[in-house]
Design brief:
elongated; 6-stranded mixed beta sheet; 12 helices; alpha/beta; about 35% helix; 17 strands
């Protein structure tokens, strides 16, 4: 959020915007009753639990639609409706951004591919080469539908093993649309092994994971995005923040075997303290009000002379944003903030 206040337009003077890192918040349940979220099937277990937890706390129903990350992305392009999209691979989110389907994103967790085998690894599978043996039955996710399938294809194409494994899989007729279906194949014994996410194996007590050396550089980011088509973007962003909060959604991800990101602590309505030189007031008030509404936050703006504001900061006050009309009024406090952005001259 600290970078989102930058597009302020002011002419005729030099404006410097310094953004800090502190956010506060207070309860604000909002008025939205329902949000629709497209969720990668492999992330279903924690997201379902978090959604129900959020519903109990705030009375907002989260309607979840599951599928492979690629399949969901295709659906989004056609439907052009909904509020959130959670992909198991950030590359799908990049595509969604390029197609202007997603406005902003938040990182939730990290995952990587492993070989799933029955508990105890009865066939002694040690790596990808073992999956190419003539008597081995293997299940893979469809590279065109599921993130783990796409990642597997890329990873093994680079190691020169994909063509042989794809041929084996297609011959056996086992290409699945989601990672969960691959895991279920292994659990039910219809195949000897399958390639899934490490977090997926941790959700199946009957399975073990075999590490894949080729996967060392195939770690993927689980990311949630706010859809451009959302009619309630502030409410959607609020749930996304809850989902990725270090004291709300992320502990649920961790409980279900995910390596979680370093999230912010939860604040129902984050509060930003904004110090601004008084000369800037007319130019920025409407922009700040629009940003406040769109992001579902509260901006406490303090207008005063830049020299007075600088003195307050040097005296110990810590605004999240410091907006000056002259670069000289940054001297001595630069280390307290992030990068300084000149807005105009």
């Amino acid at each position: 959020m600290k970078n989102a206040l930058r597009p302020l337009l002011i002419s005729g003077i030099v404006v410097i915007l310094l953004v800090g890192l502190l956010l506060k918040g207070d309860p604000d349940s909002g008025n939205v009753e329902t949000l629709t979220m497209y969720c990668a099937a492999g992330i279903k277990v924690p997201v379902e639990e978090i959604a129900r937890q959020y519903e109990a706390e705030y009375g907002v129903q989260i309607q979840l639609q599951y599928g492979g990350s690629g399949t969901l992305l295709n659906n989004l392009q056609v439907a052009k409706r909904g509020d959130l999209y959670l992909a198991a691979d950030a590359s799908y989110m990049d595509i969604a951004r390029d197609k202007e389907l997603v406005e902003e994103t938040i990182l939730a967790a990290h995952i990587r591919p492993v070989i799933a085998v029955p508990k105890g690894n009865p066939k002694g599978i040690a790596g990808i080469e073992d999956l190419l043996q003539a008597d081995m039955r293997v299940s893979l996710a469809n590279p065109d539908a599921a993130s783990v399938g796409k990642t597997t294809k890329k990873m093994l194409s680079e190691s020169g093993q994909w063509t042989a494994l794809e041929k084996r899989t297609q011959t056996d007729g086992v290409f699945k649309p989601t990672v969960n279906e691959v895991a279920n194949d292994v659990k039910l014994g219809t195949v000897d092994a399958g390639i899934v996410w490490d977090s997926t194996v941790r959700q199946y007590p009957d399975l073990d994971a075999v590490e894949i050396p080729e996967a060392a550089h195939a770690v993927k980011n689980v990311t949630v995005g706010i859809l451009a088509a959302s009619e309630n973007p502030a409410a959607a962003l609020r749930f996304a923040r809850y989902l990725c909060a270090s004291d709300k959604g992320l502990p649920v991800f961790a409980k279900h075997g995910f390596e979680v990101a370093a999230g912010d602590t939860w604040a129902p309505r984050p509060e930003i303290v904004y110090f601004a030189g008084g000369v800037n007031r007319v130019a920025i008030e409407k922009t700040l009000a629009a940003f406040e509404k769109r992001e579902g936050i509260r901006i406490n703006t303090v207008y005063n002379g830049c020299g007075i504001l600088l003195g307050s900061i040097k005296g110990g006050e810590r605004p999240d944003v410091y907006h000056t009309c002259d670069a000289s009024f940054m001297e001595g406090v630069e280390n307290l903030f992030g990068d300084a952005d000149p807005i105009s001259k």
